[in-house]
Write a structure and sequence with these properties.
- The longest helix has 37 residues.
- This protein is 71% helix and 4% strand.
- A hairpin with a 3-residue loop joins strand 1 and strand 2.
- It has a two-stranded antiparallel ribbon with strand order 1-2.
- By secondary structure, it is mainly alpha-helical.
- It has one domain.
- It is elongated, with a radius of gyration of 20 Å.
């Protein structure tokens, strides 16, 4: 690491606010959302286990587990994707980046920057597509499930998608800026 104030760690940790205020704020928000997603995974696992036990041993399944699980997977992804972006842990061809970076570190930074900018566009498009449906769900009281058996409002799940996609887009732009700084010699 160099002693420049724009430098941020590249090890997946949240940079200090004094060194990278934008990265620190994005990192804290992303870490909080990711933590909520992790807790949600634990709760979902407990719900599924309780449903299986109730179904097999008590002949009393829990109503709505499949509906909750189906929507929860998408919500959990959008809660955790921004942290994955900041930590450079999205699915990608790491072997290719390592091979390029070994012989040409600048080429690896260019590829990382292109990857981050593509991610920013994709997440912005998800945000753009989800925005109107989110507010429509709130206005109309949209729900999913079987009426009279089990229903749950869709608005919270759609809002998580909007917030997660927006934050992931911002995190992708931040990662791109870090790669550009690294190209200019200012550290990652």
């Amino acid at each position: 690491m160099t002693d420049q104030t724009t430098e941020v760690p590249d090890d997946g940790t949240i940079p200090s606010f004094s060194r990278a205020p934008v990265g620190a704020m994005l990192g804290v928000v992303a870490a909080c959302l990711s933590s909520v997603g992790t807790l949600w995974i634990g709760g979902l696992m407990a719900l599924v286990v309780a449903d299986v036990l109730g179904r097999n041993f008590l002949n009393a399944p829990i109503t709505g587990v499949s509906e909750i699980a189906g929507r929860s997977v998408v919500a959990i992804v959008f809660l955790q994707v921004s942290a994955a972006v900041l930590q450079k842990r999205l699915t990608r061809a790491d072997f290719l980046l390592r091979a390029i970076g070994g012989g040409n570190p600048r080429g690896a930074h260019v590829l990382e920057c292109a990857f981050a900018l593509t991610g920013a566009v994709v997440f912005a498009l998800v945000l753009w597509a989800s925005w109107p449906k989110t507010w429509e769900a709130l206005a109309t009281g949209e729900f999913f499930g079987v009426q009279g058996v089990f229903t749950i409002p869709t608005f919270p799940f759609r809002l998580i998608t909007v917030v997660g996609a927006g934050l992931a887009s911002l995190c992708s732009l931040y990662r791109a800026a870090c790669e550009i700084r690294a190209l200019k010699g200012g550290g990652v």
